[in-house]
Amino acid sequence: MTNRMVPGLVQGASFRTGGMPPILMYHSVSPYQYDPHGVTMSPLRFQQQMRWLRRLGLRGVSVRDLLEARSRGKGRRLIGLTFDDGYADFAEHVLPVLIRHGFTATAFVVAGRLGGDNAWSVGAPRKALLTADEVRRVADAGIEIGSHGLRHVALSAAGDAELAAEIADSRDTLRSVSGQDVTGFCYPFGSMAPRVIEDVEDAGYDYACAIWPSEYTGRHALPRISVGDADSPARLWAKWLWSLAAWSYQGPGSARLGRAAVAIARYQPPDRGGVPAKPL
After folding, report:
1. Residue 210 and residue 191: Cα distance in Å, rounded?
2. CB contact at 8 A, 178 and 145
3. What is the helix, strand, coil percentage profile of the chain, to 5?
4. What is the tally of structural domains in the chain?
């Protein structure tokens, strides 16, 4: 695995990712009052962000399509849209907006909890997850279905048998449900380790998404830009510019630029009881 790693920003290491593709990370999109983990975005804010992307001449696409386009040198105006956990509100509040703008996306679904809820999210309100029928409907609408494991557990702490099931069995389940060849994986909680990444790659996944840059950054640990309800178009623009610069530039000062990009992408204002922060 070592020869596949790209040095990243960990404990002061140099930040070198060789031009990672721009990918936004969403979770739930729905009206809400309380969100202790900052994973919920209001439908109004999401609509605003998608309108802004389109006005900039950008098109939101799945990670699969983004990587394929970039391999042909055609991805300059594309940006990846990802939605972790497979919340049921995707079908109601996300899909119609994507269709309206001519966008697609990748939905990373927890295969062993279809029709269940986010039981892993301790202290947060229960949220319904997509059912098998809803996953099929979303897939038929052109959304890429990726795996987020079987039960949403930290894979770096999983035993060998559990790890194999989380990676391989989840893929088999989602293939059967969606009718797609599931080629993308997303690490629950962003939990990675060399053996986890190796198992994901060995299982045949073409790519995998992480959360933050790390020493494992590469095709099977793609960093993403975390997007929250407080992100006005101006704030999202700042996050995107910093991330693109840091993940592409490899000259003097790139490590400092990388640290700034990660700090901006990580920062979320305190919870405001479901009211978006005042736009910049």
Report:
1. 8
2. yes
3. 40, 15, 45
4. 1
Please tell me the distance from the alpha carbon of residue 19 to that of residue 245, in angstroms, as a whole number: 9
State the DSSP code for 129. Answer: B
For the entire predicted model, the pTM comes to 0.83
**CA gap 84, 29 in Å, rounded:** 11
Is 241 within a domain?
no
Residue 44 sits in which domain range? Answer: 21-229
Amino acid at 67: L
Residue 250 located in a structural domain? no
Q: Look at residue 156 and tell me if it is in a domain.
A: yes
Closest CA to 7 of 201, 214, 195, 196: 214
> Cβ neighbours of residue 72 under 8 Å, at least 6 residues apart?
none
- Closest to 126 in 3D by CA, of 35, 188, 199, 222: 35
The encoded tokens of residue 213 equal 């840059």
- DSSP notation for 153-219: --GGG--HHHHHIIIIIHHHHHHHHHSS---EEE-GGG---HHHHHHHHHTT-SEEE-SS--TT-BT
CATH code of residue 217: 3.20.20.370
Q: In tens digits, what is the pLDDT along the chain, a chain of 280 residues?
A: 333 333 232 222 233 344 678 899 999 999 999 999 999 999 999 999 999 999 989 999 999 999 999 999 888 889 999 999 999 999 999 999 999 999 999 999 999 999 999 999 999 999 999 999 999 999 999 999 999 999 999 999 999 999 999 999 999 999 999 999 999 999 999 999 999 999 999 999 999 999 988 889 899 999 999 999 999 888 888 877 776 666 654 455 545 555 555 555 455 444 333 333 332 2
